[in-house]
Write a structure and sequence with these properties.
It holds the Pfam family PPR. Belongs to the PPR family. P subfamily. Keywords: Repeat. Among the domains are: 110 residues; 103 residues. It starts with 38 loop residues before the first helix and ends in a 16-residue tail after the last helix. The protein is mainly α and 511 residues long.
């Protein structure tokens, strides 16, 4: 394979502007200011905040919905976006379930999508509430069976395989099979559940037990190949690949993408390129995912020049670079500690109206932590806030940890306030970091308020956050506040049993 040379005219994203100083800094005022939030985005914020701020479980949610959300306001996209925000913000799953039921009740005004159902199912299974998940699926089967997709089955089985037993998962599969006729697609969903959880012993056991009942196809074999790849065993990937060929299955682009990804993640970039050449020889055309994987692999291997060349090859191959390809090249720059070029690329994305997502911000924050320190991170952080971007929890934790390690709990508290204002309930790890930093700086009152906000929004505290605040309140002699936290925790447990590791309320134990 001949990689295309890097033309001078295409270096716009990688050349450093003469106006930049040698000590690279990000302007706190964006070159491309974002427009104010639309009315639609404002409604999403309002409803998400309404749900998260509602005192739970003191008052029911349905009357609140009837009072503040007229059915005519509901739309397919609005419901999807609200549920998406509740999901990514790790909100109380029962609240999201109540909102979905409200939407389902008024679905004569709009078309409720399978995406909304899948998000709700994902929220319930993530919190291990499989009883509610079954209840939801039964209701959908009766009222709107078209929403029961293979993806929804995949979500359910994947979480059951993760949190339940092998027997529980098979029993659930057989229970569903009684309701409808299953074929190879449903069989593939079951296999994927075990493979995505890296449970390859179980996956092969299911394959041996059930393959006579179904007719495995190339997708079946690719799912098993993916499982071996996820386990990080390249030898197992190649052995199964040859077994797949011996069985008479023809490799397709997905097969090659899985093998390329397996090599790239282990730093074997040359083997990834070899597979790309093999694809081209057998007329299996690479996709944008193939090239993105190779760009990422070049970055892992420290081969920045080939990462750039692969990116430039995308239009030559009649492919269109998407946000994933840009993020992969950005990650390659960051790995090479070339933060200036990464920032140029980020600005170029904005100029071309290619949005920034959580991967974009997460990657840039990691790079700026090393190169520009607190000043660079803060400038990008404020730029993100100006665009009303709501980061996911992985990005939130990176920022919170960085602020707190740099003895700036005020910035952590500012981030916390922004998320709460936008209707999010930050993840428990972010709370642990913030509470620890606040108490270390003698700001235990604010740590207490953050804990109270989490409980008011129907989320359990982690043991670490509870014990740190407990110690502060005991030392300050504020037993009334400690009693209030304990009462809120126990009240929440009535409707939302804590998962393993969450605070249980400890006033009944000796201090």
């Amino acid at each position: 394979m001949n990689l295309v040379r890097w033309p001078k005219r295409t270096k716009i994203f990688f050349q450093i502007s003469k106006s930049l100083t040698s000590a690279f800094k990000i302007s706190s005022i964006s070159t491309y200011p974002s427009p104010p939030p639309s009315e639609f985005e404002t409604e999403i914020d309002r409803i998400t905040k309404l749900i998260n701020d509602h005192p739970f479980p003191d008052h029911p949610l349905q009357p609140l919905f009837r009072q503040h959300i007229p059915p005519s306001l509901l739309s397919t996209t609005l419901v999807e976006n609200v549920l998406g925000r509740l999901f990514s913000g790790h909100s109380n799953g029962l609240k999201a379930f109540e909102f979905f039921k409200f939407s389902l009740r008024h679905s004569q005004f709009f078309s409720l999508s399978s995406d909304s159902f899948e998000k709700t199912l994902h929220i319930l299974t993530r919190m291990r509430n499989f009883d509610k998940a079954w209840e939801l699926m039964e209701e959908i089967r009766r009222k709107n069976p078209s929403l029961l997709t293979l993806k929804s089955m995949s979500i359910f089985f994947s979480k059951l395989a993760k949190f339940g037993s092998f027997e529980d998962t098979l029993e659930a599969f057989e229970r569903m099979e009684k309701e409808r006729r299953f074929g190879v697609e449903e069989f593939n969903v079951l296999l994927r559940a075990f493979c995505t959880q890296r449970q390859m012993i179980e996956a092969r056991a299911v394959f041996r037990k059930m393959y006579p009942r179904y007719s495995p196809n190339t997708q079946t074999m690719n799912i098993l190949l993916l499982g071996f790849k996820e386990s990080g065993n390249i030898t197992a990937v190649e052995l199964f690949y040859h077994e797949m060929v011996r069985r008479g299955f023809k490799p397709n682009v997905v097969t090659y993408n899985i093998r390329i990804d397996a090599y790239c993640k282990k730093g074997c970039f040359g083997d990834g390129l070899r597979l790309l050449e093999e694809m081209e020889k057998v007329n299996c055309l690479p996709t944008i995912e193939t090239i993105t994987t190779l760009i990422h692999g070049a970055g892992i291997a420290g081969n920045l020049s080939q990462a750039r060349q692969l990116f430039e090859e995308i239009p030559v191959r009649n492919l269109k670079p998407d946000i994933g390809a840009y993020n992969a090249l950005m990650a390659a720059f960051i790995r090479a500690r070339d933060v200036r070029s990464a920032m140029e690329l980020m600005d170029g994305m904005e100029e071309l109206n290619i949005g920034h997502d959580n991967v974009t911000y997460y990657t840039m924050f990691l790079g700026l932590k090393r190169s520009d320190g607190l000043e660079g991170v803060c400038k990008l952080y404020h730029r993100m806030i100006e665009r009303n971007f709501v980061p996911n929890m992985r990005t939130v934790v990176v920022l919170m940890k960085f602020f707190c390690e740099n003895r700036r709990p005020d910035l952590g508290l500012e981030l916390w306030g922004y998320l709460v204002e936008r209707g999010c309930c930050p993840h428990g790890h972010a709370l642990d970091l913030l509470v620890t930093a606040l108490c270390c700086h003698g700001r235990g009152e604010e740590a207490y308020e953050c804990c109270k906000q989490v409980l008011e929004r129907g989320r359990h505290l982690t043991p670490r956050a509870f014990h740190i605040v407990e110690r502060f309140l005991v030392q300050a002699g504020q037993m009334d506040k400690l009693g209030k936290l304990d009462h809120m925790i126990k009240k929440l447990q009535i409707v939302l049993p804590p998962s393993r590791g969450h605070a249980l309320g400890l006033l009944n134990q000796p201090l």
